[in-house]
Amino acid sequence: MNAFAEPVPPFARYRRSNWQTFLRYSDQAVMYKTIFDDLKIAKYEEIVENGSLISGFMALLDLDASDFEGNQHVRPGMSAIQVEVKKYAAKKLKTKEHNADFLAWLREGEVTAEIEGYFERGDYGFWESGAAWHEFCSAAMLELQRLRETGLTDNEPLYVFPNATNEIPPPVPKLPGALKRMVDDAIVKCAERKRTSEDDPSWGSGDEEA
Fold it and tell me: What backbone torsions phi and psi does residue 162 show, to the nearest 5 degrees?
């Protein structure tokens, strides 16, 4: 069975099916509090305030991480357009290696620029509407209040998500036919490249997944 052939569920359906399980921050905080005496909740923005995830996290633990500074690596996430292209290609990628090669192609600067040229703008988002984003954030307020009541955070108010706003980028339009043909061609070339040059490192190392 093709591991990448499963249809990607719409973001809205995913949120509805997982809402009661993935937002349990207060329960987790209380559980950890019963085990650890000195516990603090820190936001990601606080940890990376000095520009380093590793040193920022270690500083919270009063540890010196200067020896690790050269080893950190952050792989940026894909844009909304790249995600839609990957979703279109997913069912046609036959193996993990094929998937990795396609991702390497998709992340190339020239390819990204060419793909974005098919659309009127480049700052598309993942939410179907501003109203949906506002509804999601509003529904999280009770959970965030419970989290504040644990006394484990100095933040007031505490936002796990940015402030809700209706001014968010629109979702990505349907992929035009010419772009689909470009992607189909790349999928075929990635597969052929893998068969004829197994040791060529320029098209991915086989360890990328998305």
Answer: -60, 160
Which residue type occupies 126? F
Q: Which pLDDT does position 20 carry in this prediction? A: 58
Residue with tokens 């349907």: 174
More confident residue, 178 or 202: 178
Give yes or no for a contact between 126 and 82, defined as CB atoms under 8 angstroms apart: no
CB 97 within 8 A of CB 206: yes
Report the alpha-carbon distance of residue 25 to residue 144 in Å, rounded: 8
Say which residues have a Cβ less than 8 Å from residue 80's Cβ, sequence separation at least 6. 124, 125, 126, 169, 171, 172
